[in-house]
């Protein structure tokens, strides 16, 4: 018995060898004042495309084309031609005569991936003056350099295979190299995006473990899913393999359940026909044996377990529906009341058994035009002295805040809501929803000191923000960027010294006593701004050393009140 082992060369060596060969060829061409013409791929006098006939049906039509230089196709108003210059997805489109949208759509996705684009189509001086174009494609399980010339099929003076927007020819060259791999442009009429992605990136298939986690996550969120097989060319090997798996091409199947069996990650697939699939993994359902004999037979005809590896291989499309379960709902109107200015109402729940619950809250009487930064912190076992354990925090920049359903274990929960830096004197509309009855859940309002609201917000910043620890000054600075607001908090762990702190955006100074922390700023930010744009200045001092400073410190608002460390 004999066998052959092929040791693949390192891709860097492959690319360097091609570069060296092209440089040598360019020297020869420059001496003879000629340009490169690819004799291996030039016999394209026509291109087949799909057009609508007089009756409105799609038919295949052959269009005569001629090989043209880039300068003959380039539009004069946009200057000289180039490979690419700040390419965007909207620069990428099909040519005038080639139906290859599956490839063009994939090329659109790499338009803003500059490193990947430069890897596939490196810029070289000899491309423009000698007509040598290198395109790196992943073919037959390895990276190869496809060398082509810069002549392109054209019809009526325009590129027939891909757009050359603002005289950028990178798309047309990639399409030509792909056509050369398949020996003809006509072969591109039947292709699929999965193969194109592999060819351009080298990544053949999705990671099964990541796909498994993605599917499980969607199922656990009660989302509905179906998957489709690709449309394949008649007589192709891919179509034969699909039929061997008892699957049809261009067919949609339902995704119903998941399980693991003997180290196999399995997906329960539902077929709309009775295709007599070979069920390697039984039973179909946990209650399969309790079904009638007729139902068992019908289930085995229409349902079958599929390995995750085979699912990734044979299915091209996954459709997910954001289905919302029917919910039991209770609504509450929290009206602003004139109470002790140091206390505010909080919605509370006492849960006796584990239950899935979702919340929605908005300010009553606020115009729907105005979107505001909204924060909802859910704490367990809060008291008048402490906000308790932070279970979940939600942040939205909107007119209302809506949470995903979550499971809450038995206990008492308090919901601290902050709207646009305010928590006192708010009139709120609350919606509490659950897929099961809320009759066993006690829902009520409780009064909490404003210091507990502040502790809740401080806990959220400390838990989710970045930390800068200055041990020398006994200072800790927390920074949290949420949507359109940046939150800054300072902790003074000194037992004797006070801290005076100032943000560079104003002249306001805040005082933080020993062993306490304070939210020093909540600042609206744009997407372009970063933490480095906001400078924090502070002074370490004692009360008796510099009393005038304390007299001139600005008064704090609700959220900036210092809170002692526990």
Q: What does this entry show, briefly?
A:
23% of the residues lie in helices and 34% in strands.
SSE blueprint:
Elements: H1 11-32, E1 46-52, E2 58-64, E3 66-68, H2 70-73, H3 101-109, H4 114-120, H5 125-130, E4 132-139, E5 142-149, E6 152-155, E7 158-159, H6 170-181, H7 193-201, H8 208-220, E8 224-228, H9 237-244, E9 252-261, E10 264-270, H10 293-302, E11 303-307, H11 308-314, E12 317-321, E13 328-334, E14 343-351, E15 355-363, E16 372-380, E17 389-398, E18 400-402, E19 406-408, E20 411-419, E21 428-434, E22 442-449, H12 450-464, E23 466-470, E24 475-482, E25 485-492, E26 498-503, E27 509-512, E28 516-524, E29 536-541, H13 547-552, E30 563-564
Antiparallel strand pairs: 1-2, 3-6, 4-5, 6-7, 8-9, 8-12, 9-10, 10-11, 13-21, 14-20, 14-22, 15-18, 15-19, 15-21, 16-17, 16-20, 23-24, 24-25, 25-28, 26-27, 26-29, 28-30
Report on the structure:
InterPro entries: Calpain_cysteine_protease, Papain-like_cys_pep_sf, Peptidase_C2_calpain_cat. Belongs to the peptidase C2 family. Residues 35-324 form the Calpain catalytic domain. It comes from Caenorhabditis remanei (Caenorhabditis vulgaris). 23% of the residues lie in helices and 34% in strands. With 566 residues, it is of the alpha+beta class. The protein folds into four domains: 11-201, no CATH class; 208-321, Cathepsin B, Chain A (Alpha-Beta Complex); 328-450, Jelly Rolls; 465-564, no CATH class. The chain has a five-stranded antiparallel sheet with strand order 11-10-9-8-12. Strands 13, 15, 18, 19 and 21 form a five-stranded antiparallel sheet that branches. Strand 6 and strand 7 form a beta hairpin. Helix 3 packs across helix 7. Mean pLDDT is 78; it is low at 1-7, 48-52 and 57-61.
């Amino acid at each position: 018995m004999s066998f052959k082992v092929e040791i693949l060369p390192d891709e860097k060596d492959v690319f360097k060898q091609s570069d060296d060969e092209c440089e040598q060829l360019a020297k020869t061409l420059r001496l003879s004042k000629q340009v490169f013409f690819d004799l291996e791929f030039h016999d394209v006098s026509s291109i087949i495309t799909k057009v609508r006939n007089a009756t409105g049906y799609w038919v295949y039509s052959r269009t005569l084309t001629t090989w043209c230089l880039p300068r003959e196709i380039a539009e004069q108003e946009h200057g000289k031609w180039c490979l690419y210059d700040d390419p965007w997805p909207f620069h990428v489109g099909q040519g005038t005569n080639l139906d290859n949208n599956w490839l063009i759509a994939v090329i659109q996705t790499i338009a803003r991936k500059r490193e990947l684009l430069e890897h596939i189509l490196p810029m070289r001086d000899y491309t423009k003056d000698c007509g040598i174009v290198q395109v790196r494609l992943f073919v037959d399980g390895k990276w190869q350099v496809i060398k082509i010339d810069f002549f392109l099929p054209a019809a009526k003076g325009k590129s027939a295979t891909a757009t050359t927007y603002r005289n950028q020819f990178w798309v047309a060259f990639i399409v030509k190299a792909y056509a050369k791999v398949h020996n003809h442009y006509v072969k591109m009429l039947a292709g699929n995006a999965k193969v194109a992605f592999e060819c351009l990136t080298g990544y053949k298939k999705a990671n099964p473990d990541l796909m498994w986690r993605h599917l499980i996550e969607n199922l656990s969120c009660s989302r509905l899913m179906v998957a489709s097989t690709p449309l394949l060319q008649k007589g192709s090997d891919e179509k034969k393999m699909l039929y061997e798996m008892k699957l049809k091409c261009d067919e949609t199947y339902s995704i119903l359940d998941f399980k693991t069996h003997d180290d196999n990650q399995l997906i329960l697939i539902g077929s709309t026909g009775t295709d007599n699939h070979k069920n390697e993994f039984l039973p179909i359902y946990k209650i399969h044996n309790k079904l009638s004999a007729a139902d068992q037979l019908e289930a085995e005809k229409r349902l079958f377990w599929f390995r995750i590896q085979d699912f990734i291989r044979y299915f091209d499309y996954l459709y997910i529906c954001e289905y919302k379960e029917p919910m039991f709902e209770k609504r509450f109107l929290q009206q602003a009341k004139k109470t002790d200015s140091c206390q505010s109402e909080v919605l509370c729940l006492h849960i006796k058994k584990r239950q899935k619950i979702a919340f929605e809250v908005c300010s009553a009487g606020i115009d729907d035009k105005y979107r505001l930064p909204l924060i909802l912190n859910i704490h367990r076992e809060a008291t008048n002295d402490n906000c308790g354990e932070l279970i979940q925090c939600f942040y939205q920049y909107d007119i209302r805040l809506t949470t995903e359903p979550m499971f809450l274990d038995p206990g008492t929960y308090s919901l601290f809501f902050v709207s646009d830096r305010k928590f006192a004197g708010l009139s709120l509309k609350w919606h509490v929803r659950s897929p099961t009855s809320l009759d066993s859940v006690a829902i009520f309002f409780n009064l909490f000191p404003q210091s507990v609201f502040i502790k809740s917000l401080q806990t959220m910043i400390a838990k989710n923000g970045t930390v800068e620890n200055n041990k020398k000054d006994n200072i800790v600075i927390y920074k949290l960027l949420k949507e359109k607001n940046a939150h800054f908090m300072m902790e003074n762990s000194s037992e004797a010294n006070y801290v005076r702190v100032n943000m560079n955006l104003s002249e306001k100074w805040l005082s933080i006593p020993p062993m306490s922390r304070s939210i020093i700023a909540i600042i609206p930010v744009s997407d372009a701004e970063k933490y480095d744009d906001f400078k924090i200045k502070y002074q370490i001092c004692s009360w008796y050393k510099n009393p005038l400073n304390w007299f001139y410190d600005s008064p704090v608002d609700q959220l900036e009140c210092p809170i002692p460390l526990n």
